[in-house]
Model the fold of this input.
Amino acid sequence: MGKERLSLAVIVSLLFIALFADLSWIHLIPDVVRAMPKFLISTSVYLLLFPAVPIIYGWITKNEIGATLAGVLPIIGVFILLNFYLSPPNLERMVVVIAYGGRLSIIAGSAGYFASKRMIPVAILLPILLGVLWLCIFATGIH
Done:
């Protein structure tokens, strides 16, 4: 039973990364099209999913390890994917990407972990606050 629960978290994480990989061609779209509200809304929703997926997964399954994995794996996977996709492999850049993604992963994983505990009111407020912190740290990395 334990392996099945962890494999579900890994599958959810891989599907999330695959969804992003499918959208990775977006930088080829002209700037005029990118300014359209539909593009902005879909990008915003996708970014909000990063902290929301582990919170929802943890709350539904009550699986601490799975919820932590659901928060850590998609972020690291997408950041490594972007690092190789947008620029040639560079060790210095890779360290910066992993450090930035690592902070976001720790926060998202923690949010999923605390959501899986379901301790009222901690299980409600703490994951939401960690999700807001995730968005704030993400915004500091936008250049």
In short: The CA atoms of residues 5 and 124 lie 23 Å apart. The chain has a mean pLDDT of 75.
